[in-house]
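FAQ
Q: What does a multi-component entry look like?
A: The components come first, one per line:
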Amino acid sequence: MHTGVFHDIDFAADQKWSGHLGIPFSIDRSPYFQLKIPVFRIKNGTGPKVLLMAGNHGDEYEGEMTLARLYRRLDQSAVTGEITILPFANLPAVMAARRRSPLDEGNLNRAFPGDAAGTPTFRLAHFLEHELFPRHDVVFDLHSGGTSMAHLPCALIEQQGPPDMFSRALDLMKGLGMPFAFVAENGADAPTSMAGAARAGAIGLSGEFGGGGTVTPQTMALTARAVDRLLIALRVITSPVLGPHAPVEGATELLALQSHAQAVFATRRGWFEPAVAPGARVTAGDVAGWYHDFERPEAPEETLHFPADGIVISQRLHADCQSGDCLVQVGRPLTPTHALVR
Ligand SMILES: [Zn+2]
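Then the predicted structure of the entire assembly, as tokens:
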């Protein structure tokens, strides 16, 4: 009664249904309190099984808005197969407009494979990896840079799973119609949803669709198009639900993010002044920005240099930085000849 995650999802029922996951978490105001996380299901016959989720981090809004809208707009009759939607996965974080949950300071995307007897964020991660992900063929987890980071809108997968599964993930990612996509190497034991999906036998797809704790017409349009294109590629729907969409302008440019050496980190308190915007093409040694010591304003600012060739994919938005803050990341371009599948 006091651990785990409860729900009354009927996975066999053909229906359009909304309900909640319940996570017991006794608090002062309410001894039998349950965190009620919205969950939507649309099932129509047999076919592909897709899990769409957002709100893994609470301050990343493109996915949260788009997936709730998708459920509102989708008719059951337009679906072949199953769509499960978790639009606000780590609900306390979403309600607090924060990356992590204020209930337990849990970062859902660092909580997999989770703990059934742990705090709410870890119980949710455990339920997702052990019960919900295994029921689906594809898990699409939508992110953005959040409040503190600007992010080039990118699709994203991790180098996970056996070669055939990774190859399928790569094809699906390219089909999302995003201008950029990157492949991250976090390892099979990573605490992320993508690694959790792979351990559960599902294909994991993700993306950073914007940033800055806001949305723009461009980031919302790219997100809506990516969701529709995925569902159409999987043959769960046959025509766009969130469109009309602008045509895709060109092939997705593939990048790789494989090491911390592709980023610049702060090592002391200061102010970061960027030299370029996300999307800039840079060469190792180019000026990435300047670091100001506001406690020694008479001292010259430090010039920061890009550590690698590539495209700037993310950049810290807050000038005020502390030791350990990631200031900028560079994605390494991958040519088609790079052997990604190993
Ligand atoms: Zn995120």
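Q: Is there any commentary attached?
A: Sometimes. For this entry: Residues 15-256 form a domain with the Aminopeptidase fold (CATH 3.40.630.10).
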